[in-house]
């Protein structure tokens, strides 16, 4: 995912898309094999575990792409060329926006401070990465994604190198670390998608069953609608 913002350095405007690299993948999936088997009402002794696991993976990836949200905890790395303000033709961005939803729960407990999700915040000074003082900034806890802002009375470092990727940020994203942390409506949507794929193996059929894109209809579509992050320009 990327976010279009501009950066003004030495009076020169640069317009670019910020990218986000996954550096630690999710450990586990949004629903368990046991939950799927119960939903499908499969008899004991069913040996479709490998196939069901692949369907859970496909459905989870699809739901994350559709909603633009991470389900199980991941760690991202992103870069910026300079500190705010970013200038575009239509708006002025005063904070550093991280266009991924910050981690909400860890081990079933709500993260007390969204700032705890920022695991690294550094900038280059003469080619050497230096920590941005933690007392100088805070993180907003928003529904869709978080942003880094200056504490009142503080200012961004001025000795930053004038180059691309001069700021390095690593942060945690997702609803939580286990199936229990995922909102029920999302888990139900995944179960319905997996069930449709399980019952309609192969290519899409005329009635819409048999592929992830088709299976997103009906109940699953309704369940996911409230969780979609809409991309709206500033």
User: What's the CATH class of the domain at 2-25 and 70-173, please?
Assistant: Mainly Beta
CATH topology of the domain at 2-25 and 70-173, by name, is Immunoglobulin-like
Number of helices, where a helix is a run of at least 4 consecutive DSSP H or I residues: 5
As residue ranges, the low-confidence spans are 1-6, 8-15, 87-92
Major sheet size, sense and barrel closure? 6 strands, antiparallel
Give the strand order of the largest sheet, numbering strands 1, 2, ... along the chain: 1-2-3-13-9-10
Rg, please? 21 Å
**Structural class determined from secondary elements:** alpha+beta
How is the secondary structure organized here?
Elements: E1 2-9, E2 12-24, H1 33-40, H2 49-67, E3 74-80, E4 86-87, E5 92-93, E6 96-98, E7 105-106, E8 109-110, E9 118-125, E10 128-131, E11 137-140, E12 146-150, E13 167-173, H3 184-199, H4 212-215, H5 218-225
Antiparallel strand pairs: 1-2, 2-3, 3-13, 4-5, 6-12, 7-8, 9-10, 9-13, 11-12
Helix pairs in contact: 2-3, 3-5
Features:
single chain; alpha+beta; Immunoglobulin-like; 5 helices; six-stranded antiparallel beta sheet; three-stranded antiparallel beta sheet; 234 residues; disordered N terminus
